[in-house]
Specification:
Blueprint (H helix, E strand, L loop, with lengths): L2 H8 L12 H6 L2 H23 L3 H23 L5 H20 L6
Length: about 110
């Protein structure tokens, strides 16, 4: 065999260029991002521990008292014809929904 044929037969074809990394790969390879990702489990654990720490009966009673106080005020305004039925439904829904959403943080499994 000649030298040319050896070089042609014995060589491996050059691999195509490496694909460019995507913006997400570049973002995730950043040392700051790696450090932040490593902290996520610790933050979740801390959030779970502090969540149960604030689950107190006085907080729940206060929120429920606020809900019933607003319901009483809405009822009074409806009786003296200061609120229409649409306004009553809107205010009642907003206040009760927001209160129960807030209370969900304090209840077990919430």
């Amino acid at each position: 065999m000649s030298e040319e044929s050896k070089s042609i037969q014995g060589t491996v074809p050059a691999s195509p260029e490496q694909p460019k990394p995507t913006p997400m790969e570049i973002f995730l390879s950043s040392p700051d991002i790696q450090k932040a990702i490593a902290e996520i489990p610790k933050l979740i654990e801390r959030a779970i521990q502090t969540k149960t720490k604030w689950a107190t009966l006085p907080t729940i009673i206060l929120i429920l008292g606020l809900v019933f106080g607003v319901i009483g005020a809405i009822t009074y305004l409806a009786v003296i014809d200061k609120l229409s039925s649409d306004s009553i439904a809107l205010v009642f829904g907003v206040i009760v929904g927001a209160s129960f959403t807030y209370l969900q943080k304090f209840l077990p499994g919430g």
